[in-house]
Amino acid sequence: MKNIGIEVKEPKKECNDPNCPFHGNLKVRGQMLEGRVVSAKMMRTVVVVRDYLHYNKKYERYEKRRGKYHVHAPDCLELREGDLIKFMECRPISKTVSFVAIEKVRGD
Q: Most buried among 39, 48, 70, 93, by the most CB within 10 A?
């Protein structure tokens, strides 16, 4: 298992996915985000929703916003719907996938 350069819990399970940051050749970079898995129906890809607050300068208040990301899910993390995960930016893996899951924070 290789070091990805970030302090996260390494997965206990092995996988032979070439796009796994721990067991494959994929490098992570850029921003690290946290969100909740809402769909795990695609093969090795999950849909993650991230809720955040955005400051509205005109009204001097915060407004709720939501972002939806397609995230590559390596087999070693075993992600399911409802899991809270950390994911990080990487090179584009497909047309819509440019993020990879690096840690399962809490599983339901």
A: 48
